[in-house]
Amino acid sequence: MTETLEKALAPLFIIGSFCNLGMLEYPRGQPKAYLSCLYALVKWGSLTYYYYYPISIKIFWNYKIFFIADFSQLTLIISILFGFRHFKELKMCLRKLAIVDDTLEALGVQKEYQRLRNWIIRITIGWIVYVICRSTYDAFTYCVLNCNFDLWAVTLDKFLIYYPSHIIILSALISTAIIGLVLYMCVHLLCKLFLLTL
Question: What keywords does the record list, in alphabetical order (predicted)?
Answer without folding.
Answer: Membrane, Transmembrane, Transmembrane helix
